[in-house]
Design a protein that fits this description.
The protein is α/β, with parallel strands linked by helices and 206 residues long. The protein contains eight helices and seven strands. Strand 6, helix 8 and strand 7 (193-201) form a beta-alpha-beta unit. The structure holds zinc ion.
């Protein structure tokens, strides 16, 4: 029965590469997979530790582009599975908070990519606890100090997170300014530990 269900799903939604759309394999075809650069753990201000699945670039960047700017929300499932596979490498957490989008962005895109990526994440996800406290401009095109200033105090937490271990999740971390600003809000709400996870880690400013 499970096999039949799988066959029906494969027929309706044939597995395809999240980067080049080649049919047959998910998330990446063999050719794109060969070009992927795995990422690991890295330090971010205000977090115990942050981790990403892949380095930004090549097929990984293409997949993110299709998902985020091409608004192919269906890619959230295969990409979200990649995030979920990293979960065993992370410390235990009590709650997962996706980084919220600025309201104007949400209206423009129609979905929050971070929220979509954690739909199948194997932990308690609370998508509405972390909020945007004020409007910010896009981080794209801004440099380090400008990025930090742009997002400083940009987040607030609804309710308290007293003593909790929190995992912040975003689609891509670049300088980490956004995640650090979110971590500050989470700590101010009483969190004991703050960890970070992103699908992609970009070393230089996008
Ligand atoms: Zn491919």
């Amino acid at each position: 029965m499970l096999q039949l269900a799988r066959a029906v799903v494969d027929f309706l939604f044939p597995p395809s590469c999240v980067a080049c759309a080649e049919l047959g394999r998910e998330p990446f075809c063999a050719l794109c997979e060969d070009a992927l650069l795995p990422a690991g753990a890295f330090a971010l201000t205000g977090l115990e530790e942050a981790r990403a699945v892949l380095q930004y670039g090549g097929p990984a960047a293409l997949a993110l582009f299709r998902f985020k700017y091409g608004r192919e929300v269906a890619l959230a499932r295969p990409l979200g599975r990649m995030l979920a596979e990293v979960a065993p490498l992370l410390p235990r957490v009590d709650v997962v908070l996706p980084i919220p989008l600025a309201r104007s962005r949400l209206v423009e895109r129609g979905f929050n990519q971070a929220r979509e990526l954690v739909r199948g994440f194997p932990a308690r996800v609370e998508p509405h606890r972390l909020r945007r406290a004020r409007p910010t401009r896009s981080q794209a095109g801004l440099r380090g100090a400008e990025r930090r200033a742009n997002v400083a105090g940009a987040f607030s937490v609804q309710g308290r997170l007293a003593g909790q271990r929190v995992l912040l999740v975003d689609d891509v971390v670049t300088t980490g300014a956004t995640m650090s600003a979110a971590a500050a809000a989470v700590r101010a709400a009483g969190a004991r530990e703050v960890h970070g996870l992103a699908l992609l880690h970009a070393d230089s400013v996008l």
